[in-house]
């Protein structure tokens, strides 16, 4: 079992009222706690909105609580209780509504001890009980997982460490974003968009010496590899990538990058949204929605940048039938 400590508290702030229900002792660890974290971790890993960084230089509340906890001034119960109490104050001061259960779990990994902080929400459902009758129940709705953070506790006090805190927000949590970033003393230290665009710009230049179809396919394969790494929670090492997909290449991508941009990070965290255009072009307006593979552009789909128009040929058979009214 990788979970060594865990505790859950309830926090509600709704229409001016705030309340919390604080647990006074850690959970008795069973397979349920490990199962709970095993459900949360892949959801967190697959989120495209993650931000990577560390604590800011300001000595804010949460940062201070973490330092005291790691220094054994506080135990997990006191640390988590005080975190919820101060979070309730922050919600009240900024007039933000929130409701859910907050999980604090220490995960023992090879990379170090990871503190997981996750907001859990419940929903009502129906089960068949022991008397073979339908009954109401409440259960965790993992599809509505709220704010989530992972904090590498072994790196917090390491000098120069700039990427020990990763955060992500659930759908519709815009009001919580600034509040939680301020509360956690979070500062971005990794610009995933800039790193990805810099790398893919080199990939585009590299693939220009290939036939057009081959070049577009190569860019797509690179983007798909990067997205798969995102889904697995892994960084992209361009040397490893080069070894995986070099069958179409006139020379090695890794050697090309060494010559063109030797300062490029060997490993980087890709930004999924920046990679989508290398796989599919898509867009929508009120009346039109369109999506097509990047390999189609220049073949059965052409774009006139001056007129701002797309010309399509080889339309899908189902669309032709609809247009003909068949």
From TrEMBL:
InterPro entries in alphabetical order: Nucleoid_associated_NdpA
Domain of life: Bacteria
Span of the signal peptide: none
Keyword set includes Nucleotidyltransferase: no
Main localization (coarse): cytoplasm
Cellular location(s): Cytoplasm, Nucleoid
Molecular functions (GO terms): double-stranded DNA binding; single-stranded RNA binding
Entries under Pfam families matching the protein: NA37 (PF04245)
Gene Ontology cellular-component annotations: bacterial nucleoid
Keyword line: Cytoplasm
Spans through the membrane: none
Database matches in PANTHER family: NUCLEOID-ASSOCIATED PROTEIN YEJK, PTHR38772
Family, per entry: Belongs to the YejK family.
Protein name, per record: Nucleoid-associated protein
